Amino acid sequence: MSSVLDNAKAKAKEVAIEDFNKAKDLAQSAAKSGAYLYPIKGIFYFLSHRTLWKPLLSKLAPTMTLSVGVVSFMFVFAYVPQLAVLVFVNGPLAAFSTALLTLSESSAIITFLSRRFLIQDTLVDTFDGVLLARNQTAVVAEGRQLKAGNFGDPIGKLGKLLKSPFDNFSTKSLVRYVLYLPLNFIPVVGTAMFVLLQGRTRGYSVHNRYFQLKKWPQSEREAWLKENTAPYTAFGTVATFLELVPVASIFFSFTNTVGAALWAADIEANNTSMTEMTTQKSRGGGKKTE
């Protein structure tokens, strides 16, 4: 009996060490890649390039109305019932964790509705506009017509789409969100796990438009994302944190799109410190566009 217990303990220790080492490697890979900085870079780049404001400004009124309406509805009808449950689980932290949970729920609803009905095309314009601003004209030309002139205005240079935009915020993403939602009932740690898991899903979608412009088949996209799980999870986690602010979540959706486009431009120009990205050259994506 004791030998069985000893073997079980040894096996558990082995698995724990293995998982810890994997997590450590992923964390080191994410830190080395610098991918987590791109959502922040996106904010500063967006604010410093007024020509990129056009898509957001064109949708500002309806998205702000949607955000305020959803947040108000959720705090009126969902906050108190959830607080009544979480107070037994989280104790004195219940008010904070319930507010975070309600904000997260509001953010998911706002993002789902806005991306499906309001801002999908404008996010595509923003992504393509940043690529143009970063001299990746040939890449963008694979997916849309480009107007002559307007060299100081990348958004004004965008013409008709030749390829359908990347997928809307999918129903599958919403299902994953609902499945992970119970993690928020675990104080602090559960919420952090929830954001991390959401971040991975979010990160995997940030370059859908880039992959489309590069004409990568699904198998190549999946292999690329698997190879670079840590950087994309790091990007997605930071982006998710930013988009947890519901009234500002639409603004951060645009700045995160800018950050993703800056990242794509750096991949194209081989101007990234991500060691995971070195295989990009062999895939034909490392050639810098003039």
What can you see in these coordinates?
With 290 residues, the protein is mostly helical. 70% of the residues lie in helices and 2% in strands. The chain has one domain (34-283). The relative contact order is 0.16.
- Total helices: the number is 14
State mean pLDDT (0 to 100 scale): 81
Helix/strand/pairing class, anyone? mainly alpha
Low-confidence stretches: 275-290
Q: How far apart, in Å, are the first and last alpha carbons?
A: 71 Å
How many domain units?
1
Rg, rounded, reads 21 Å
What is the topology, as strand order, of the major beta sheet?
Answer: 1-2
Shape field: globular
SS strand fraction: under 5%
Please estimate the helix content.
over 70%
Major sheet attributes: 2 strands, antiparallel
Order of helices and strands: HHHHHHHHEEHHHHHH
Total strands: the figure is 2
Task: Characterize this entry briefly.
The protein is mainly alpha-helical and 290 residues long. It is built from 14 helices and two strands.
